[in-house]
């Protein structure tokens, strides 16, 4: 018998079907050990000795694994083909060696990039040893993240109440978001004007041309700076005569994109499907581990943590066959396309993310998948197939036009783009920009020297001048932040999703219409780190450290030496910062966050002058609930202002009175005043005064600055009556609650997609989401369907069935449930075996608390059972990610 160890039960279930009866496949449920969340788990004084701890759940699974290995002939470690997978195998092996159950039995490590029968069997035929450099890289990263987190976070807690943590990668990613917000705040819009002429050829075919030259000088986008200049040019253009000076047409090709890597998949799933990076990886994990497709459980995609863009030769051949069959030979290049990654510090140990079988078309497998799985599989399949398709062909035409009047001249330019052959674009476009390009219009036929005329129409003059203002850089989305981190070499593909999730969980950033907005808490942390730990949040420093860690994984550097160099300077600096007084920290933060905390006032007055007493200076203060703005004349002047409630906007809302109240208007129904206020938990609107006036907090994503009377009244009118349910005759309401926007009916609550939908959701949509929620609840409570029936129990009481439950297959008779032994085939269970299991179970288990009681009794009576329980700290079984 061979024991195979993988991470997840889903993966174990799939692989077990491929290997047959000579193999027992067990799941570790992720990492089995972790560093305890307390000081001393990594000891720099003992050359970075690491103390590992096994939590209670992992201990039970390790005992099961150890028991299976005792009677096995061979141990096969088949965890994921990456650093974390290698670490899990190493941890399992370390524990089994400590338990002394191996006793010279062969231990093999196998890896496969896809969970298909062919890939698994090929991997089993090519075992290897544990990759020690990869394990060393894991140890180095885990130790670094622990040392940074458990050394830096206590400093934050003491100096910045309310701050929760700092991390090696997390803090640098947060700095990117905050730096972008700073750029937006200090941005000064620049005025510019565009001038466009609507012209017609001698054949009366119309088109538009834009000013490109004025008085012999090239005119860029921002060169016409004010209305006076625009008016002068427009006056000239209204009198000028026009002719074609040159026409240039040239072909253009656009090549397809390479197959997905982890980061590009996260970017595209964010843009196209609206998935967070974390959600993308969760769905991809299920597609990788195996899905039941027509009675066969198979992994649908290759491993989803990779920065390689190449795919296996056999996959290229299969892809080309699909292209020829589904799209025709026109879309098939003469030779296969080969890709190589350009990402900084890329490790191309694995293929790109692709379907395991390209002949499984999305339309054929979608009925076996849930909606998210189907959409992600469709995206991966299209990207993979498109990567081997023919290029798209365009014709780009540029027409230069001369304009002249009296002694002055100007130049105009018209461009057009025509799609001649769509190529890969017939299947896949990466972003809306692509769609805009392919829809570029065709220009009318023109030749050099052709005269042109202006086209004036009622309400549409031939010459138009339009005012514009430059815009600040956009806030990051998850997709663009991942792209930026990858460009800078910060973090690695497997860490991005966890890093972004940590920033949200810590409330350092919030998501507003897919944009990442730093909260005030996040900006305070970043300002503190930039002021006192500048080197350790520098982009170049973080990237160079990643390069060193890559050298460790390649066997080119010693992991402990990397830690020694880092720890020597880092620990010395932490010791210095610990001695800082809080007043010194606040002075630095006042300076660092000045434009955000003390924005310029409309009247030009000093933004730090207290609006109440007029003599005090405003400054950041630290209180029990975090930072706020207060007056230096306290306690004589008690002016305070909330720094914000975490939505990333200046929630103090410039324009509120000294008492923190802003009048928005009067409610036309009641005649009461509607005001905007800032309270302990952030901004809210209030109707009237009195003991219990009606109030409504601003929902997530709504800023105090953007509040007006209309929005306030909409909030104050909640809950909103949607209508009467057609089946029950009971009312349906929409509202905003603790967990976001929802509709409710007869005790059932169903989430809505956005706050805006609360005010617009109709009866049909409300009924649909309520039905979906009710259906999900019913499915969750439903008893698993029987895999087979073994007939009536000899003693009566109903039939005996075999079912597949959350923790594996079992037999059921009445209220007795008996788990099948590990490795048992549920379809091969006989009625005699089932009765024996049921008899044993019912004999041990009392009616109440059957499961827990029987397990406790069994554990207590087991030979060699420990008389004392080692105290453990609860940890997660999921993989630990860097910077979390």
Largest sheet: 6 strands, antiparallel, barrel
CATH architecture label name of the largest domain: Orthogonal Bundle
DSSP helical segment count:
25
Largest beta sheet: strand ordering: 7-8-14-13-10-15
* Terminal-residue CA separation: 39 Å
Mean pLDDT: 84
Q: Provide the helix percentage.
A: 25-40%
Total number of strands? 33
Query: How does the helix and strand content classify structurally?
Result: alpha+beta
Q: What is the rounded Rg?
A: 33 Å
- Highest CATH level, the class of the largest domain: Mainly Alpha
Strand fraction: 15-25%
- What's the CATH H-level homologous superfamily of the largest domain? Topoisomerase I, domain 2
What is the number of independent domains?
7
Enter the CATH topology name of the largest domain: Topoisomerase I, domain 2
Unreliable runs: 432-439, 644-659, 844-884
């Amino acid at each position: 018998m061979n024991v195979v160890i993988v991470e997840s039960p889903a993966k174990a279930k799939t692989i077990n079907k491929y290997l047959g009866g000579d193999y027992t496949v067990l799941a570790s449920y992720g990492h089995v050990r972790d560093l305890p969340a307390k000081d001393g788990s990594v000891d720099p004084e003992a050359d970075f000795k690491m103390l590992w701890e096994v939590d209670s759940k992992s201990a039970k699974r390790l005992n099961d694994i150890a028991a299976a290995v005792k009677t096995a002939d061979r141990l096969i470690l088949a965890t994921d083909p990456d650093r974390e997978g290698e670490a899990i195998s190493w941890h399992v092996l370390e524990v089994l060696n400590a338990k002394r159950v191996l006793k010279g039995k062969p231990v093999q490590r196998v890896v496969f990039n896809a969970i298909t029968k062919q890939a698994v069997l090929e991997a089993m035929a090519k075992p290897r040893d544990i990759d020690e450099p990869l394990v060393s890289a894991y140890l180095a990263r885990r130790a670094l993240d622990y040392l940074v987190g458990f050394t830096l976070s206590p400093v934050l807690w003491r100096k910045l109440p309310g701050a929760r943590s700092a991390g090696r990668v997390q803090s640098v990613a947060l700095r990117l978001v905050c730096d972008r917000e700073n750029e937006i705040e200090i941005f000064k819009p620049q005025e510019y004007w565009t001038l466009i002429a609507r012209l017609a050829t001698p054949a009366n075919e119309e088109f538009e041309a834009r000013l490109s030259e004025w008085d012999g000088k090239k005119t860029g986008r921002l060169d016409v700076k004010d209305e006076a200049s625009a008016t002068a040019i427009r006056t000239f253009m209204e009198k000028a005569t026009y002719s074609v000076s040159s026409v240039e047409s040239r072909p253009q090709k656009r090549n397809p994109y390479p197959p997905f890597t982890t980061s590009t998949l996260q970017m595209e799933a964010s843009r196209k499907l609206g998935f967070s990076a974390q959600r993308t990886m969760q769905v991809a994990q299920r597609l990788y581990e195996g899905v039941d497709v027509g009675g066969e459980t198979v992994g649908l995609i290759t491993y989803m943590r990779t920065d390689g863009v190449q795919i296996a030769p056999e996959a290229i051949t299969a892809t080309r066959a699909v292209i020829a069959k589904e799209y025709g030979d026109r879309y098939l290049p003469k030779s296969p396309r080969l890709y190589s990654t350009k990402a900084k510090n890329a490790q191309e140990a694995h293929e790109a993310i692709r379907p395991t079988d390209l002949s499984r078309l999305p339309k054929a497998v979608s009925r076996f998948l849930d909606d998210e799985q189907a959409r992600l599989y469709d995206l991966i399949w299209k990207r993979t197939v498109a990567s081997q398709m023919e290029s798209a062909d365009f014709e780009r035409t540029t027409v230069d036009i001369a304009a002249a009047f009296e002694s002055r001249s100007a130049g105009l330019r018209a461009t057009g783009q025509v799609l001649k052959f769509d190529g890969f674009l017939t299947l896949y476009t990466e972003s809306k920009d692509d769609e805009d390009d392919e829809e570029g219009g065709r220009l009318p036929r023109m030749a050099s020297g052709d005269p042109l005329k202006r086209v004036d129409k009622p309400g549409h003059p031939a010459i138009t001048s339009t005012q514009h203002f430059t815009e600040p850089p956009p806030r990051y989305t998850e997709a663009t932040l991942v792209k930026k981190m990858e460009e800078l070499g910060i973090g690695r593909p497997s860490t991005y999703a966890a890093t972004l999730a940590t920033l949200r969980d810590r409330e350092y950033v919030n998501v507003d219409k897919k944009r990442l907005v730093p909260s005030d808490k996040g900006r305070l942390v970043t300002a503190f780190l930039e002021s006192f730990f500048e080197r350790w949040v520098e982009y170049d420093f973080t990237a160079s450290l990643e390069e060193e860690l890559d050298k460790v994984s390649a066997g080119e550097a010693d992991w402990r030496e990397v830690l020694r160099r880092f720890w020597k300077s880092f620990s010395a600096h932490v010791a210095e910062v610990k001695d800082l007084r809080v007043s010194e920290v606040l002075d630095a933060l006042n300076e660092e966050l000045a434009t955000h905390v003390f924005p310029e006032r409309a009247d030009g007055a000093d933004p730090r002058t207290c609006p109440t007493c007029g003599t005090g200076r405003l400054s950041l203060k630290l209180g029990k609930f975090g930072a706020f703005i207060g007056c230096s004349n306290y306690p004589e002047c008690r002016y305070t202002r909330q720094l914000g409630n975490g939505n990333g906007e200046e929630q103090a809302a410039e324009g509120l009175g000294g008492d923190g109240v802003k009048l928005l208007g009067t409610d036309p129904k009641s005649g009461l005043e509607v005001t905007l206020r800032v309270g302990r938990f952030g901004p809210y609107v209030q109707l009237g005064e009195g003991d219990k006036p009606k109030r409504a907090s601003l929902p997530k994503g709504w800023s105090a600055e953007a509040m007006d009377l209309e929005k306030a009244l909409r909030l104050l009118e909640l809950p909103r009556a949607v209508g009467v349910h057609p089946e029950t005759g009971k009312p349906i309401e929409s509202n905003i609650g603790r967990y976001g926007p929802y509709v409710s009916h007869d005790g059932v609550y169903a989430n809505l997609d956005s706050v805006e939908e609360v005010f617009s959701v109709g009866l049909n949509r409300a009924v649909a989401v309520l039905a979906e929620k009710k259906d999900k609840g019913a499915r969750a409570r439903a008893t698993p369907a029987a895999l087979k029936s073994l007939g009536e129990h000899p003693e009566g009481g109903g039939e005996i069935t075999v079912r597949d439950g959350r923790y594996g297959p079992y037999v059921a008779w009445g209220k007795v449930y008996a788990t099948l032994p590990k490795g048992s085939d549920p379809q091969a269970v006989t009625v005699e075996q089932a009765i024996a299991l049921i008899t044993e179970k019912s004999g041990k288990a009392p009616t109440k608390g059957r499961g827990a009681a029987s397990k406790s009794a069994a554990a207590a009576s087991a030979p060699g059972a420990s008389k004392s329980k080692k105290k453990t700290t609860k940890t997660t079984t999921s993989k630990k990610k860097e910077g979390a």
